[in-house]
Predict the structure.
Amino acid sequence: MNVLIVEGNPDLGVIWKQHLEGMGATVSLVGSQEEAVLALYNNCYEIIVLDLVLDFGSALAVADFASYRRPDARVIFVTNTSFFSDGSIFCHSPNACAFVQSETPPEDLAAMVEHYGGLR
């Protein structure tokens, strides 16, 4: 399974990447909207782990582009804010499958990737 992580905090992104690779996933880690769009142009992903608040660009733009370029890719949004805490992210992003806090334990996030992406 191919996973794209779009996370502005490289330390957190590396932790997630290592957990997913340990489960057998092929993982690309990028930190901005521009890098995410380039990755989506060049690779097919089953799951995108996407920080809702990017320092460089818009997470919703990434999710929107993914729904066009890779319509089968599902998005797990992560955040350390209360934006969309009412669940409305699922109205704004049709490819959203989960919405969790950035502090979610890496093994729990990996389990969600496994569940939604079919990693076996």
Summary: The chain has five helices and five strands. The chain has one domain: 2-105. The mean pLDDT is 88.
